[in-house]
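@channel sequence for tomorrow's demo:
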Amino acid sequence: MVRRGNRGLSQYQNVGIHTSVTEADPHRLVQLLFENVISNIYKAKGAMQNGEIALKGEAISQTIAIVATLRSTLNFEQGGELAERLDALYDYIIRRLMSANKENDVAILEECVELIRPIKEGWDQIPQQLKKGQ
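structure tokens (generated this afternoon):
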């Protein structure tokens, strides 16, 4: 059950997310996916620490779905070995998230953040002229 004050905040956040997505270029969309992966992992961590099982499960499920989306967009023809390595990493992260959920293990969630953060930071550093070439 959503508390009345939280419902308003949640609706406001959803409008902000929707606006960001509808106005975003492809590069920004990927940034939003990475941001949501990290945000959802921290949400799952907090829920895990507070014993909020349903929220934990929801946050981890959303994270798995986002990582699966990132994985499904890999271009193996153009990406070659890098795409193959990212595919393996995304597969590993998904399996670790499932383990974190099953084992209720905060350390595994932290591991997942540490694995995804460098990819997000690399994506964030792509020069502007390359972003427009997509």
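heads up for whoever presents: The helical segments are 4-23, 26-49, 53-72, 76-103, 106-124, 128-132.
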